[in-house]
Amino acid sequence: MRTKLVVFLFLAALICGLICGCISPEERSREQGQEPDGQIQIIVSILPQKEFVEQIGGRKVAVTVMIPPGASPATYEPSPGQLQGVSRAKLYVQIGHIPFENEWMENIESANRGMKVVDSSEGIEIIGNDPHTWLSPALARTQVEHISDALIEIDPGNSEYYARNTEDYLKDLSDLNEDIRNNLSEIKNRKFMVYHPAWGYFARDYQLEQVPIEIEGKEPSASDLVRLADTARANNITTVFTSPQFNSESAEVIADEIGGTVVFIDPLAKDYTANMRAVSAAFARYLT
User: Fold this and answer.
1) Residue 253 in domain
2) Can you give the three-state secondary structure of 182-218, one letter per residue?
């Protein structure tokens, strides 16, 4: 009888150990909002934010982007796998005011009630319903400061590290602002035509004026295209800008009508500072 009891207890302990062993140290780390190497898991909505977080968090963060390259924040829906991944994050950084967040943040937050959520656009004055605040380097500074504050709050032991990185990156953004201003200083024709009106804050900062093809998310009608071509000719516009997230057909129709060129500029590129310099170089080249 005693032998049977010993065997039973041994088997019970073995089974218990196997069950507990099914949860690996890596999985335990992820459940606590950390990668196995100790990195904090952070989720952002759009690609430009990845640079913001990585420049502040450095080697201490692992960043996941919800909206993949080429997808539109107006129409993208997260996959079940992405929502499951939210359950392991320690911080979600909203860009603020984009349709994706308006539609999905309630579901995202319900997937992880312990996750801190910060709206990086807090305190920024929104023009109309335009959510494209990150395309202003001056406003990007505000977003970076919000991210820095959130990282320091959830990981106070590394506050000095985050503060140093933030100071360095804010200087990079100041340099970016100055470079763009210099790039655009000699432009005489300061009106530009663009398919999706993402560049309102950028245009405001650098004394430009965007002429949008798409209005309130709607494709232009045939009469709109005629009117836009007339506007382009009247303002000596020879380039029509568009973005890889949208169908370029309307831009091509107008460009053909005015004998002009279609040029792609990306408001959602991953490498924020490099992309903004490339955009300003495109404006400097094609706005004559």
Assistant:
1) yes
2) HHHCCCCCCEEEECCCCCHHHHHHCCCEEEECCECCE
